[in-house]
Amino acid sequence: MFFEDEIWNRMMILLGEVTLFVALFLILISIVMAILIGTSIRSGRLFFPALLRPFLVLMEGFVKSICTLIGIEPGELLRFLIRLDNRMNTQSFAAIPPNERAVFLPQCLRSAQCPAHLTPEGLRCVGCGRCELGAGIPRMKALGYHVFIIPGSTFIKRMVQKYHPKAIIGVGCLMEVKEGLEMCNRIGLVAMGVVTAKDGCVETLVDWHDLFDVVTIGIDPALIPDNPDVSANQCS
Ligand code: SF4
């Protein structure tokens, strides 16, 4: 009986030590990751993205807390996480032909006087020239993309179920893009995110050069129209 108690006590002590060691290891590695994130944000470069991403999937909440403690703004961190996802998905995205890709644009990009009607596949742009979508969408369609102007994320799921794109580009505010990328990672859909240049619910803006930088990934440059400066084509 004495020996059994002794063995039991030793096992409990060992378990406690292992738990403490694992907890300390996770805290230490989270601090290292947070420093790595901070350095990446400040320098504009991505350090060890292949290491950061899986770790962040497991420990995102904790790393976020440490990032806050070391002075990284939540918005900066979100932008970083989106950049990280984009970097990790770029190779797979490039390998998928444009006719198997889809672009989802938020309806807030259109003009407040937009005459487009809502259809089961989102808003149908009539190219009235009141906003930049009228010039941008045909350029993307010319490359082979399916393009949707959507009033909410439920449309993404519906259109993905209907058209089965192998890759998508989601445009939206920071939080929308972050959540969209997470959803795509969960369902195994290759996704790239582009954050709008101006937030809000009405007449937001996207940097079309940023968007076309993503749209044209993996496409033969000979097939890409000249500089896609859609704002130059906009009628007011
Ligand atoms: S160009 Fe803009 S405002 Fe005009 S129909 Fe298309 S989305 Fe609406």
Automatic annotation (TrEMBL):
This is DUF116 domain-containing protein. Keywords: Membrane, Transmembrane, Transmembrane helix. The chain crosses the membrane at residues 12-41. InterPro entries: DUF116. It comes from the Archaea.
